[in-house]
Write a structure and sequence with these properties.
Helix content is 9%, strand content 39%. By secondary structure, the chain is mainly β. Strand 10 (134-144) and strand 11 form a beta hairpin.
Amino acid sequence: MRIHSFRTPALVATSALTLVLLAGCSSSSTTSTTSTSNSSKTYPVDTVPNVLPATGSVNGVTVAVVSTPAKGNVGLTMNVTATINGTVHPSTLDFQITDAAYFGKGKPATNQSLTVNGPGVYKMPKGFKPPSAGTWSVTVNYQPTDKKYSSLSISGLPQTEGGKPPFPQLQTIVTK
């Protein structure tokens, strides 16, 4: 017995766009994917532990981002690590941290860049000490040098004011 599954192009395109919008991962390619998982566990978006990476894929490259700590007092140091796998072309990784309420508002409090020449683990060059209490969100941008390849952005910032963060594990709650 053969079972066939048919999908219309419109349904596939709509599903892919919905995944990108809900996950908060952006790319100019139609082959991007995102996930937050731990092999056998699924977490509600509000309770994802910081130890789980926020992951995005584009053009055969997967970028997994971890930000620590999840919370602490003013004076703590935030650290961000991006693990890159796949067919990696010369690229730049930009690590940004902001206390903005949502995507596109304000400027990053820190913006640090690294050159990427292959798969590996890349750490934000210098830890960041948030100067005040609040919610501090991480965004990591993967930008290939050759513009024929798509870029990828993985962010803990909500897309709209009052919205939920797509990757809450990329946020640090700082108290006084």
